[in-house]
C-alpha cells in the first residue's frame, strides 16, 4: 500500500490541521536527519577502516592503527603492527619496518620479571630452530636497566636481536598490560596473534608454525 | 573425556542462534499465511531462547568458578588468586562475557514482552516478536561466531591473567550489569515502535506499551549511571564521579533521549501532537544504545573503559546502519499516520514547556554526542587525533542543564493549552520568593562565586515548587476525605503514581544538581608530604598524620596511613587511606580512598595515600568535596520515584473473555488507522 493511499484513508478521520504541509515538513525533517546520519556513518566507517588497516592513509607510517586487544585469544587478523626501534645490546639499532616481508615475533620482557625467566629458555631454543625457517625474533627489553638486561641476555644465551626501545615507546604503542607479552607479526606487518604471559613451547610452536604457514600460502 | 564446558557452551549458543532465526522465520511465515500454530511456536521459541541463554550464563559461571583455563575467556578474565566473589564479576569483565550477559538479558526481557504482547496486543505481537528476534539473532551471531566466550585455547593455561585489581570491588556487581541491562532494554520500546509502524496501529494502547518499556529502560539505565558515579567516586579515587569519558557519554545519550520521550509522550497522550517526534526519540535511544556499544567495543574512540577488541566493531557498524536506515524508512512510510492532531496554543502551557524541555534535552544529547565522536571524525577527516575534554561539556551542558532544572520547577505548574498569568503568579510567588531568599542569604553569608548562590537558589525554587504541588494535592484530598497527612500523601501517590513518581524523580534531580553544583564550585584540594606527626589544614579541617601501618594478607599487601581529622579544633574522625598491592599485579597498586562526610557542613573529606618515603613520611592528596552526599541521597530518591512511577499496575485490564480460540479478525476498536489484521492466539 502506498503512502498516498494511507493518506487518503486517513483524511476523513484525522482532524488534520495542516494536512499536506505537515507531511512534507516531516519528510524534509527526516531527509535532513537521514543526510546527517549518512554523513556521520560515512566518517565513522572511514575511521573504522583506518583502524582496522583495511585502508591506509597516504603517507602515514605503518601502524598508525588504533588500539590493540587484550587477552590470549586470537586477534582479529587485520591489525597493523606499530613501529619498534631497538638499540641492540650487540650494538647498532634495528627497526621493525626494516624486517618487512619476513614474519617477526616481538617479545616484550624485562630482567626483573620472573615469568620472563621461565620463558627465556623456550625462546632461545625455538630461535635456534626457526631462524633457518625465516622467522625473526625481536626481544624488546622494557622498563629495565641496561646493565641488568645485558646480564639477563647473557644468562639465557639470547642470540636473537634484543635491546632497549627508547623511552619504552614500543610498550606504549603496543598497549602492553604486563610482562611478558608476545606479538606474532606476519610479513605484511599485521599482528596475527598476541600472547599475554609466558609462552610455553607447545603454544609458541603452534603460533610459529601458523606464521610460517600463512607466509608460504 | 567427557564433554567439556566449552563444548556445552558452544553447542548451546549455536542452538540459541538457530532458535532465534527460527523465531524470526516462524513469525514472518506464520503471520503472512495466518498460521496461528506457527505463531504460537514462535512465541514459545522466545521462551526457549531465554532458557538457553540462562543456561549459557550458568555454564560460563561454572567454568569461571572451576577455573577451567582451557577456555580462552576464563583464562583472560579470571585467575586462581582471585576470590570467588570477584570471579563471579569476571562474567562481565571482558567483551565476550558481557555480550553474552547482554544477550541473556535481551532474551529474558523479550520472552516476557513477547508473551505478554501475544496475550494483550495480538495485533502488535508478531511484529514486535520478529523485531526482537532479529536483534536477538544479531547478538547471538556475535556470541556464537565472532566473539564467543567459549572459545578454547590451543593448550590449556595453567593460570589465568585475571581481572585488573581495580575491578575487584563490590561495585563491579552492580554497575556493569545494570548498564548492560539498561542498554539492552532500549530494544523493547524500539521493538514496539517498529511493531506499531509496521502494523499501522499507532493508537493509545500502543503508545502506553511503548511508554512502559521506555520507562523500564530509562529506570534501569539511570540506576546504572548513578551506580557508575558512585563507583567512580568511591573506588577509582580520582576525586570526582563523572569525567565525560566517551563511554560515560555513550551511556548517557540513550538515557537523555528516553528522558525527553517520557516527557513529550504526555503531549501525544493529551493533545495528539509530536507523534513522529516521539517515534524518532525512541529510535534514537535504541540507535544510540547500539552506537554506545559499538564505540566501546570497536576501539574506535579511545576511552578508559575500552574493551579494545575490534572484531565486533564492523558488525555493530553494519547493524547500526540497518537499524537507522530501516527506522527512517518506516518513519517516512508511516508519516501520514503520525500527523499532528493539534497545535501549540501559547508559550505558557504545559505542552510548550515539554517542547522546550525536549529541545534542551536533545540539545544536551547532541552536544555530548558531538564531543564524543569528534575525535574519531577528526581523525577520519584530517588524520589528527584530538581530545575533547571535560571543559567542553561543562561549558556547553552546564547552562543547558541549569535551564532544564528551572523548567522542572516551572513546567508542572503550567496547565495544558494555556495558563493565565495571574494563576501562574499565584503558584510561582512562593517558589520565586524562596529562590530570591536563598540566593540573597547565601550571598550575604559570603558565598562566592555568586553564580553558585544563584544556582542553589534555583534548586530551592524547584524543590519548593514541587513540594507545594505535592502539598496542594494532599490538601485537596484531605478536604474531602479528612485523612491524616501521611495517609493523604500516600493515597495521593497511589492515585496518580506516574505523576507523583515523576515529581519524586524531580526532587531527586534537585538533590543531585545541588550536590553537583557544590562539588563543582567549592572543591578544595591539597597535595602534601607529611612527616610522621605533621599536619596540614585544608579548608576548615586539620589532618594530622600519625604513621603508616602494614597489613599482609595471602594475596594482598596493604599499606595504610592513620590521619586524625579535626574540625574547628575538635577531633571528628580517624581516616585510613590505603594503598593495596595484589600479588601478580605489583606494577599496578590500587588506592583505597578514605571518605568521611562531616557534620553539619556535609563536606566529603576525600583522602588518598599516593606514596611514602623511607623516612616514614607519606604523600597525600586531600580533597574537600562539598555536598557530594546529596548526589547519593538523590540517587536513592531517584530509585524510589522510578519504582513508584513504574511499578506494574495490578490486573488493571481484565482480559477480554470468550475470544475465539484461533481466528484472524479485522482490526477492532476505535483505531484511526488502516491497520494490519490481527491473529489471536489462545493459550492452549
Keywords:
heterodimer, A: alpha+beta, Glutaredoxin, 8-stranded mixed sheet, 6 helices, B: 684 residues, alpha+beta, 4-stranded antiparallel sheet, 19 helices, 12 strands, 12% strand
CATH homologous group name of the largest domain in chain A: Glutaredoxin
Q: Please tell me the overall pLDDT of chain A.
A: 75
- Subunit arrangement of the protein: heterodimer
Question: What's the Cα radius of gyration of chain A?
Answer: 27 Å
The tally of domains of chain A stands at 2
What does this structure look like?
The complex is a heterodimer of chains A (217) and B (684). Chain A has six helices and eight strands. Chain A is of the alpha+beta class and 217 residues long. Chain A folds into two domains: 50 residues; 138 residues, Glutaredoxin (3-Layer(aba) Sandwich), CATH 3.40.30. The N terminus of chain A is likely disordered. With 684 residues, chain B is an alpha+beta fold. In chain B, helix 6 crosses helix 8 and helix 16 packs across helix 17. Chain B is globular and about 85 Å long. About 4% of the residues of chain B have low confidence. Chains A and B meet through helix 1, helix 2 and helix 6 of A and helix 3, helix 11, helix 12 and helix 13 of B.
What's this, in brief?
The complex is a heterodimer of chains A (217) and B (684). By secondary structure, chain A is of the alpha+beta class. Chain A has helices spanning 3-10, 19-52, 114-130, 146-155, 169-173, 201-216; strands at residues 79-80, 85-88, 93-95, 104-109, 136-141, 162-165, 181-185, 190-196.
